[in-house]
Design goal:
By secondary structure, the protein is an all-alpha fold. It contains 9 helices and no strands.
Amino acid sequence: MSDARDDNVQHQLLALPGRPATERAEFLIEFGWSRAGQPTPGLAQYLTDPDLMVRIAAAHACWQTQPETEALDNLVAILAEGLDGHDEELALMAGTVLGNMGEVAVPALVRRFDERANPLIVRVVGEICGDEALRFLARAAQSPEPDIAEEAREALEAMAEEDRE
């Protein structure tokens, strides 16, 4: 039975390219949740889709189906693209996936920040927490860019508040 199910999954993945971007992204998000922990060949092709929303959804699906992936930096880089743009929906989608990834995403997010300072990266790292996040936020709080420093200070204050509770 599992072979038939796997064949059906592969058929569905192969049928996606001709569909509109929204449908591809929705399918990949649902697919990731439904196949959690089950590596699936064929997902990686959507990490290079021309549409950023589809790439973000594919990164989510890859993370859900294979969370110990060796391609973590690539997944985080794709998700960080969503934080870099001006589309609030994509930024929320990417930030949510990164938050769900947790502390394992922090090193790659810090590297991305060092390449391209972005206050949304600071916000996401602040929501993740952890020791490495704390070190990064302390450094970001000293940034000469006011929006970055403010995001970092707010995240540090929120962490301190949680520690007091």
